Amino acid sequence: MNRKSISSQYSRRKFIHDLSVNAGMAALAVNGLNLFSSCDDNKEKNKGSAMAKDNQNKLGIALVGLGNYAGGQLAPALEQTNDCYLAGIVTGTPSKIDTWKGKYNIPDKNIYNYQNFDSIKDNPDIDIVYVVLPNSMHAEYVIRAAKAGKHVICEKPMAITPEDCDRMIAACKEAGKMLSIGYRLHFEPYNVEMARLGTKKVYGNVKKMNAGFGFPIGDPTQWRLNKKLAGGGPLEDVGIYCIQGFCYTTGLDPIAVIAQEGPKTDKEKFRDVEQSLTWELEFPGNIICHGKASYSEGLNYLQAEAEKGVFELTSAFNYSGQKGNTPAGPMDLPKVNQQAKQMDDFAQAVKNKRPTPVPGEMGKRDVKIIQAIYQAMETGKKVEIR
Ligand code: NAD
Question: Ligand 1 centre and the CA of 42: distance in Å?
Answer without folding.
Answer: 35
